[in-house]
Amino acid sequence: MTLETMEPTPTWDADAHEDTVDVFAELAEDDAVTITVWGGDWCKDCRAELPDFGAALDAAEFPEDRVEEIPVDRDKNGPLTDEYDVELIATIVVERDGEEIARFEEEEPVPAAVYLADQLRESELSA
């Protein structure tokens, strides 16, 4: 099952977010990196965040088969929510070889793609 809210925003400007796209394009080259997205098409925060995140992944040519979209119900219950301690949606987890390397949750102060790109740049610099 997929989330309609992950459909890329057609007006999202990849050139204005070149640094963000570059981070996800680099991750696209690493077959060990996967992204899991929990959300709900009924959720206003998901409708605000996920289309631009989908556009960023699209611009970076991140492989769709390495992005898992998990719909949750209005109580925020769904597959793997307990295992990943998902309490807020949208929640996005980036993993390498099954190890979490970045996480976005709905209450972050910047858009999901930008927030995750910043986290990933920092984690790569400190690695």
Walkthrough of the structure:
The chain has 127 residues and is an alpha+beta fold. The chain has one domain (4-126): Glutaredoxin, CATH 3.40.30.10. It is built from three helices and four strands, in the order H-E-H-E-E-E-H. The chain has helices at residues 18-28, 44-59, 112-126; strands at 33-39, 67-71, 91-96, 99-105. Helix 1 (18-28) crosses helix 3 (112-126). It is globular, with a radius of gyration of 13 Å. The protein starts with 17 loop residues before the first helix and ends with a helix. The model has no long low-confidence stretch (mean pLDDT 94).
In a nutshell, what does this entry contain?
The protein is α+β, with helices and mostly antiparallel strands and 127 residues long. It is 33% helix and 20% strand. The protein has one domain (4-126): Glutaredoxin (3-Layer(aba) Sandwich), CATH 3.40.30.
